[in-house]
């Protein structure tokens, strides 16, 4: 190890900012570049990729790499090592990190390799010190978190969510189903799990652009009260309900789930639990139990994990502030304190991967319009988020849980699952 390598090994964060690696003698700088690239590759579990520095060193651990990741300079690469998970995403967004090859395949390779190591390297330990404090989910903080993601603009989301404007995992009866067909099938799947009957009342915690509430009212004849703290989403949903003649059956409430009151036959939450925060799960369970009668039942649909772990730091910092995908063991804190019975658990992670592939394809097709709305950095940032999410579900890093529950004394429950697969 030469003097430059020893200096970096002692304090990668400090020297990322103070050492002018690009001005070092050519031979020494190239050796330092290869050393930095090896550190990055090791941190990621040595995935089958080529790593290079623009106009300089490169390394590859396999004969046929799935892709190439190129860093702008040695100094940039050294700074990235201080906080790899966040600074890689920022580098991709601003163009200082280039990825050649299929972005999803490259990220899949990284996700698979980075979960294989038994013990963390010194670099992983150093990166662990740079972990960012997650955003809180207090009443005020939740509004700020939701505003930062969902109030970007309805016109933006309409470019790539499809006709349903459903921003949650779809359900594909067949792999060949279209995005809109799969989103409609997901809504029927949820309604069948809840066994909705005409004339019943439903409360929805977190309703997005209002699609599921309208579907429940139109196809199952129920009355729905739907809560959401995104102003733009609620305004869109109210206008749509009025336009489709369903305003008398669906009420959209611009308020936090913690303000839910009243009594209902069913409780449903699709894609909101990720924003609740584990410490608030008992509160969510108390609200669900309080608003359900003796024959009450509910469904919670959420991104999850196989074991407790934070969301990827760059996504939590730049895309989804306050988000946390729970393990099933953590979700139990919703049900157990209030004697709610879990009736069914289904994992739809591959359905979410397919949903995201469709979103990513529509997003790429609308690339010029996204750039016109925002800029190139925003375009690349959201591309990375969508592609990384595909990789998260295909590699099992992320799961998608649908949990059906009921009050403990409710014996009006199905003997089999036949009702889920018949019209």
Q: What is the tally of beta strands?
A: 11
User: What percent of residues adopt helix (DSSP H or I)?
Assistant: 40-55%
Helix-strand topology string: HHHEEEHHEHHHHHEHEHEEHEHHEHHHE
Strand content: 15-25%
The major beta sheet can be summarized as:
7 strands, mixed
* Global morphology: elongated
Strand order of the largest sheet: 7-6-5-8-9-11-10
> What is the assembly state of the chains in this entry?
single chain
Q: Count of helices?
A: 18
Give the low-pLDDT segments.
Answer: 1-24, 117-130
Distance from first to last alpha carbon: 68 Å
Mean pLDDT over the full residue set: 88
Radius of gyration: 24 Å
What structural class should be given to the helix and strand makeup? alpha/beta
Explain what the structure shows.
The chain is an alpha/beta fold and 423 residues long. The chain is 46% helix and 16% strand. The chain contains 18 helices and eleven strands. It has helices at 3-10, 12-18, 26-43, 74-80, 84-94, 103-114, 122-129, 139-150, 154-158, 179-194, 211-220, 231-243, 281-291, 313-319, 328-335, 349-365, 367-373, 376-394, and strands at residues 50-53, 58-60, 68-71, 97-100, 201-205, 223-228, 250-254, 264-270, 292-304, 340-347, 399-407. It has a seven-stranded mixed sheet, sandwiched between helices. Strands 2-1-3-4 form a four-stranded mixed sheet. Helix 12 links the parallel strand 6 and strand 7. Helix 2 packs antiparallel against helix 4 (74-80), helix 5 packs across helix 14 and helix 16 (349-365) runs antiparallel to helix 18. The longest helix has 19 residues, at 376-394. It is elongated, with a radius of gyration of 24 Å.
């Amino acid at each position: 190890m030469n003097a430059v390598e020893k200096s970096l090994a002692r304090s990668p964060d400090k020297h990322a900012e103070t050492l002018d690696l690009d001005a070092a003698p050519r031979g020494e700088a190239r050796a330092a570049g290869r050393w930095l690239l090896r550190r990055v590759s090791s941190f990621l579990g040595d995935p089958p990729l080529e790593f290079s520095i623009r106009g300089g060193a490169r390394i590859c651990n396999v004969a046929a790499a799935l892709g190439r990741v190129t860093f702008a300079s040695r100094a940039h690469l050294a700074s990235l090592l201080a906080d790899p998970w966040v600074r890689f995403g920022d580098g991709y967004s601003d163009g200082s990190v280039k990825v050649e090859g299929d972005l999803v395949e490259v990220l899949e390779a990284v996700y698979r390799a980075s979960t294989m190591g038994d013990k963390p390297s010194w670099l992983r330990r150093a990166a662990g010190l740079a972990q960012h404090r997650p955003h809180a989910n207090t009443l005020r903080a939740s509004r700020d978190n939701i505003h930062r993601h969902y109030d970007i603009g309805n016109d933006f989301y309409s470019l790539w969510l499809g006709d349903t404007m459903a921003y949650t995992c779809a359900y594909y009866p067949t792999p060949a189903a279209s995005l809109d067909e799969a989103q409609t099938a997901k809504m029927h799947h949820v309604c069948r799990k809840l066994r909705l009957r005409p004339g019943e009342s439903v409360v929805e915690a977190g309703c997005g652009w209002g699609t599921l509430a309208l579907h429940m009212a139109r196809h199952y004849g129920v009355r729905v009260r739907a809560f959401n703290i995104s102003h733009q989403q609620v305004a869109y949903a109210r206008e749509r309900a009025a336009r489709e003649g369903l305003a008398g059956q669906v009420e959209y409430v611009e308020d936090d789930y913690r303000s839910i009151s009243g009594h209902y036959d069913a409780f449903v939450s699709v894609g909101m639990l990720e924003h609740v925060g584990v410490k608030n799960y008992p509160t969510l369970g108390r609200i669900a139990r309080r608003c359900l009668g003796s024959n009450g039942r509910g469904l919670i649909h959420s991104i999850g994990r196989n074991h407790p772990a934070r969301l990827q730091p760059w996504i939590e910092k730049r895309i989804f502030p306050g988000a946390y995908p729970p393990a099933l063991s953590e979700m139990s804190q919703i049900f157990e304190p209030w004697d709610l019975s879990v009736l069914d658990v289904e994992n739809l992670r591959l359905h979410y991967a397919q949903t995201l592939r469709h979103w990513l394809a529509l997003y790429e097709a609308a690339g010029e319009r996204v750039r016109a709305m925002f800029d190139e950095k925003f375009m690349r940032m959201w591309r990375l988020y969508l592609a990384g999410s595909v990789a998260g579900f295909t590699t099992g890093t992320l799961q998608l849980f649908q949990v059906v529950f009921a009050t403990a004394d409710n014996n009006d429950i199905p003997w089999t699952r036949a009702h889920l697969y018949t019209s």
